[in-house]
Design a protein that fits this description.
alpha+beta; 7-stranded mixed beta sheet; 3-stranded parallel beta sheet
Amino acid sequence: MDVLVCAGCGAELSVPVERVALPPEAHASGHHAWMPALMEPGTYAVDPDPWGRPWRHREEIDASEAAALGVYAPLYAVATGPRNVIVLAPGDTRGTRLLPERSGDSCLGIVAGDEPSLLCAGCGLGVGFREDDCGVWQTVRYDPGAVVRRSLGVLAPAAPVRPLPPVDPEGGWDLRWTAAAGTALARLLAASGGRAPVLPAGLPTAMFGRAVERLLPAGPPGPTVGLAGPGLPGTDADIVLVPADRRTGEPWRPPGDAIAVPLPAPVWAYLTGPAETSPTPVSGTLPAQVVRDDYPHPERPGHPFPPDHRTLRRTLARMPEVRRPWLRALYDRL
């Protein structure tokens, strides 16, 4: 567990928080007017990629400079701001003062602008940015040069992995699922060698099947894809979908030579777990005039599952493998 403190005066700028991996949906944009917090309460993540302004068009950057920024294929714009920005839920911050007039080009809320919109309430140092505009995850991003992580010397208790259903409460595909699928699809395509992989039946085919058919040519069967992880029997698949470690983001290592494609643990747990059941076993029926408030999750939406296109392109562009001619041609078609 850590506490984030001001580099200027040492004032505490957060409650005790646990470091976890940055969620794959961090760079996905939502379709709802208001988005929830990106990070779970009591957690924070460190974004290893450059974040925020100044933004530069990919055409303005030569290949070696782009590679130094972790970009290996053209993107509309490339962030060249600081690396290792600290991301946490707004409710976990303390001791800051908000200057909404420093918002960037926003719609109904605020987004990061040219100057920090969050100041240390103790010394006035600009420490980061608050974002809560429509279609944007609610986040606080602390500048790694203005905030220091101070260890409390204790481990956070192990958090149970709860399966995440693919359908959100409004009946649409959950953005956390579509973003996870976009990230996994990029790695699945790179591991395929340009041949359409053979997907397992069920939800994995619903997640990746249409995109694979659209992006990879028909022909002889490609590598097989399976599910692997703690508690699952062994598989002889060439590519395996595995859970990512909640704290580090590292994929579970399968035995043998199979290529591991990580998924967030809650998504993987839903894919591999039993069918959804009521949390409270009951028998019989409800009495007349009684309305249930533990409504079941809605059926799957009427439209096919869409891996998040922005996350797919961003992940591919930041993979050195995209420089292979066949994968670069696929990327350009996106």
